[in-house]
Amino acid sequence: MKQILRLRVNGDTQEVATEVNKTLLEVLREDMGLTGTKHGCEVGECGTCTVLIDGEPVLSCLVLGVEAQNSEIVTVEGLKERNKPHPLQVAFADLGAAQCGYCTPGVLLTAKAFLENNPHPSRAEIREALAGNLCRCTGYTKILEAVEMVAKGEAIR
Amino acid sequence: MSKTKFSVIGKPLRKVDAMGKCTGETRYANDLELPRMCYAKLLRSPHPHARIHGIRTEKALQLEGVYGVITGADLPVKFGIMPSTEDEEALAVEKVRHVGDPVAAVAAATEAIAERALQLIEVDYELLKPILSIEEALAATEESERIHSWNRRANIQKAVSFEFGDVEQGFNQAEEVFEDTFFYQGNTHLAMEQHCAIGQYGPGDKITIWSSTQTPHYLHKAMSKVLGMPMSRIRVIATPSGGGFGGKSDPFSHEMCAVKLAMITGRPVKFNLTREEAFYTHRGRHPVKMWIKTGIKKDGTLQAMHFRSFLDGGGYSSYGLASVHYTGTLQTVAYKLPAYKFEGVRVFTNKPACGPKRGHGTPQPRFALEIHLDKIAEKLGMDPVDLRLKQLTEPNTVTVNGLKISSNGLKECIEKVVARSEWKKKYRQLPYGRGLGFAASAYISGAGLPIYWNKMPHSGVQIRLDRGGGITVFCGSSDIGQGSDSILVYAVAEEFGVNPAEVRVVTGDTDLTPVDLGSYSSRVTVMTGNAAIQACGKLKKLLLEAAGETLEVPVDDLEMVDGQVRSRSYPKKAMSFVACVESAEAKFGTLGATGSYTPPPHTLKYKGSGVGPTPAYTFTTSVVELQCDPDTGEIKIDKIWIAHDCGRAFNPLLMEGQTEGSVYMALGEALMEEQVFRKNGLHKIPSMLDYKSPTALETPEIETILVETNDPEGPYGAKEAGQGPLLPVVPAVANALYDAIGVRIDEIPITPDKVLRALEGRYKGVSVPTFDFPPPVKWQPGEGVAVAQKS
After folding, report:
1. Taking CB atoms and an 8 Å limit, are B688 and A95 in contact across chains?
2. Where do the H-state alpha helices sit in chain A?
3. CATH number for region A87-152
4. How close does chain A come to B616, measured CA to CA in Å?
5. To the nearest whole number, what is the mean pLDDT of chain B?
6. Which residues of A fall within a CB distance of 8 Å from B699?
7. Most buried of the four, B4, B171, B263, B364, by CB within 10 Å?
8. Stretch B412-435: mean pLDDT, rounded?
9. Which CATH architecture best describes the domain A2-78?
């Protein structure tokens, strides 16, 4: 049985008719066309499907769509502001922090939430913050550099 | 001809697809949805080894929402990546050979319905005794114990034996002889994106498949064979890949089934494997047992080496034929070896098939060789770096097994990591619990021969010039995140003297792009780069002729830079690239050209010499500094220095990225990753939580040093960087552990329990089986003749 969900995603409130047992990951990808959120395991182990719910990084494969109503959801598609890339997006592109790019949306959102709480982190703190997001391509080095560059340079709004 | 001053090459530019990957706009296979699409699942064997006596699918077909069910009878034609060992079926016809082997496939309105339908399929299995180790496979020589029926000796997929130079004399001349045994555990790619494919039939009698494949051309060929349809009716589109590392290089069951189900149901059919299925699809690192014996002079000069490898291949051949050769052939490339004997055997076991993972077949023997040399250095009372320095191969030389080395930056790589790590100050001088380890390695920049025998180019590039100045590059290569699309753009922008932003790239689409063999064997930069430069050369000839006429400047005085064609002598005599394209189109008609690349001709005549040659070898060295807590056995890597001879840093950002990723992946293999199975053939840890891989916390600081040697065969002198840098890191970890706490672990992963056992004197080392290898192919350096091999 489908049910109408009211979800606020990237600043827009939308109604979608969907099965109540669907995860937020599935609702975003399959019912809302927001395929920027990726899946790596669908059981909460890899961090790939991370989105922000009320500013906190959350694994969207472990949340039901119905649970995410009345919350402010941000996906990678919502990172740009007025079509201007977020400083993290610029830094990741410039420093080669995205290779295959599959883990990138989740890493970006985790990093955004982290920097908002801790604008001047040490590298050790960045490592800790990103430890739940697996990346198989980069060896994390350029990811850490990119997050550091943003922390040292442009302030995050 | 070759340029020395560059405007694009050597610059740390963004990848062309970087921003799309940071905004979520890149569309991977599973992001594609087509009208009327249905979703498919595979029924997989729960048994490691069983005969199938019957499959009943009627109940599944009757389930509401099920559109089609297929079994082995629907796709009986065998396939496999290597033409001489095609032993796979899309769905098992007679036997299943590992847990997870696909048996039937269902297409339905939703994945959930497809999964329910799978439970309604009844399979009659006759259970057979599973073979789960190298030793069991070697012992199971009875015909009744066979996993496959096509191979000559029961459960031996391939056995090889070679003797180069005079091995007996080499050992006779040696003053010391050392022997060691090693085990390299298997591990898997664990690409973040699970395999995905979408098959579509029609319009017309035509097939389209979108797949997360690394090798669209080989998939194209395999699909044609299995479906009995000409390649001209099949279109393979390689979607942007969410990581490959070799794990998406075979043609797969789900790809064949997606198309077959599309033909039956009249709907597009999508397969998206679960993470657990990806573990069972595998094709990853072979578990390899190794024995090595080396004869050496007291001054440390190598005289002869005898090396044996035993590969646990899993249930199918996959790339195994190449894998077994790779465990031996590159042992000669880093150090001068006057005589070398290599014997290797790959066995079948009832586990998911192993295949190529980053470094394909070479990390295992490199692990053995580099620890072995470390041990020898200690016994001879030499610094392990000095032992290596005594016998480095040199540029423009030929190895004892006939491999031609062109550029060679090994010595510089050693000097750089030794200096940066302060090796001389730290080695053997750090306090107990802290240590430093060194290792070196060599790798190929692309295989010298294609996977199926043919005389055609390995890479083709087509370039179209638009009268608005637009440049579109078409190439069959597939970007798996390493940046192969960007390499094409950089080369073309460099050649035409334009901003890379003016260049569009279309890749991995067999309807649109000329053949490139795919993203494997670290071949893409060298081969597509050369093909692109050749295509540009043909167009430049036309462009410059037209510009010369318009500007009234002799052609050889013209250059293409800064988006202009201009006179070198009178730079004011210039026209824009756009105007130049217009005048050339007016003069010559529509502008397009192709370029292709074929590696240097294969001149070695001995059987088995096809694996090992390459356009250019790369060299890498690494120093690892670590700490080990002797109470817990826990290892913490402090820092890794890595120097890689990449020929030329085509884009240093990308070369560094490949190197850092290789180091990280090597650390996972050295310390924690393992693809291991229970006695009933089930994977012990088929999840990303239990299959431990390094996180941002365990990955240490990596200092990358790029060494440039300007290889004559590489585009602008460039060589590979995607795989070679993995190789030295794993043995360097083991060597550093010995420096730290004085124990040797001769196998990976080096886990705390093994370290503790070793500290307590209970680590027994590695046992290696015996095997009756075939008589060797004998070859003397410089000779063209070889003794024929029987097996």
Report:
1. no
2. 24-26, 87-95, 104-117, 123-130, 141-152
3. 1.10.150.120
4. 24
5. 97
6. 139-141
7. B364
8. 98
9. Roll (3.10)
